[in-house]
Structures are given as structure tokens and as C-alpha cells.
Amino acid sequence: MKKKFWLPFIITLTLGTLVSAALRQESTQTPPAGYPIGGTVADFKLKNVDGNVISLSNYKDKKGVIVVFTSNHCPFSKAYEERIVGLDKKYAAQGFPVLAINSNDAGDYEENSFENMKKRAQEKGYSFPYLQDETQGVAKAFGATRTPHVFILRNDGGKFTVQYIGTIDDNYQDPAGVTKRYVEDAVSNILMGKPVVVTQTKAVGCAIGWKDA
């Protein structure tokens, strides 16, 4: 009986410790400033897991792009993975696809290597590009600091402007317990030609592991 009682407690405590450690993980470098709301995003080119090079300009015929900085190792990224896939399934056909980027230093976590990125995309059936930001230049340009960290871009006559920055929703632990769907609300407003009401929230996740300068 004692073993049955203690096992769930130990599992919960272990998971809590891992998540707390992820939240506390901070870079010693100064966080990048990044694009502000309304800022125009410069074009970039990164290698996709299929070996092709993808650029933001490839999406000039789209209404916008949901850029998600994510990773393979982070428990928050894993918790949101199915929801990220769901966002692409819901909005890609409406001209608002997901573009996932991994900017973490694979030297910190081997899970974030390009080979493991390819495996993850195949295993989980990603319907969107999963790009490697090896130099971390794109993450710094955006001002991404966490995984996942979302930037919603609207296509304004061929230029992409930032309309939302932050987290996906208000409950990373339980999809059924979500009450505020920040990304869905923002994209829906843009598609309806309305302004985004909540333009910025705090990204909840693991700190991006920056390479030594």
C-alpha cells in the first residue's frame, strides 16, 4: 500500500522539478530586443528538415504566417506540440500556415540536432516546415527567448508585420482547460479584417539556449 501511495507522488514531484528547472533556465547573455508589434520582419532563409531552404518570402502569396520558435527537448514544447500541429491544420488552408523554427544550441541538448529534428517531424507527422536556425540569427532578430514563442505575421502588401507575440494559450498543462486561445483569436481577427485585441502575452516555456559569443 505504501508503494502505491508514494509512486504517484514521486512522479508528480519529478515532473514538477523538471518543469521548474526549465522555467529557471536563463541565458547569461542579454535577451535580444527583437521586432515590436507592427514592426516589419526582414526576409530570412533557413534549412528545412527535408533539406530544402525556406525563406519568409516563400509565403508572399499567404495572408500571414504563424511563426513558432520551438524545440525537441523542452517539456513545454512537447506539451504544445499537438496544438501547434492543430493550428496548421486549422489555418493553413485559410492562407495562414505554421512555420516552426528551432534555434536552440544542439551542443546543450543533442535532441535539438538537425537529425533529431528530422526524426521528430517524421514521427509526429508535421504538416509544416521545421527549420534549423543554426546561427540563432533569426531568433535574435525576432526577439524570441522561449520555446514555444509565437510571432503572428500579417502579409501587408508583400511585407510581413508582427501582429502578436507571446504564448499559444493560457494552459500549457491541459488543452481541455484552456480558456484563452490567444493565437487562434489573433489569427481569426486578422482573417476577418479586424484588429488583434490582445497583441502581446508572456511566453511560457524553456529559455532558448544561446551559443557562447
TrEMBL record:
<dbReference type="InterPro" id="IPR013766">
    <property type="entry name" value="Thioredoxin_domain"/>
</dbReference>
<dbReference type="Pfam" id="PF00578">
    <property type="entry name" value="AhpC-TSA"/>
</dbReference>
<protein>
    <submittedName>
        <fullName>Thioredoxin family protein</fullName>
    </submittedName>
</protein>
<dbReference type="GO" id="GO:0006979">
    <property type="term" value="P:response to oxidative stress"/>
</dbReference>
<comment type="similarity">
    <text>Belongs to the glutathione peroxidase family.</text>
</comment>
<dbReference type="InterPro" id="IPR000889">
    <property type="entry name" value="Glutathione_peroxidase"/>
</dbReference>
<keyword id="KW-0732">Signal</keyword>
<dbReference type="InterPro" id="IPR047262">
    <property type="entry name" value="PRX-like1"/>
</dbReference>
<feature type="signal peptide">
    <location>
        <begin position="1"/>
        <end position="21"/>
    </location>
</feature>
<dbReference type="InterPro" id="IPR000866">
    <property type="entry name" value="AhpC/TSA"/>
</dbReference>
<keyword id="KW-0575">Peroxidase</keyword>
<dbReference type="InterPro" id="IPR036249">
    <property type="entry name" value="Thioredoxin-like_sf"/>
</dbReference>
<feature type="domain" description="Thioredoxin">
    <location>
        <begin position="35"/>
        <end position="188"/>
    </location>
</feature>
<dbReference type="GO" id="GO:0004601">
    <property type="term" value="F:peroxidase activity"/>
</dbReference>
<keyword id="KW-0560">Oxidoreductase</keyword>
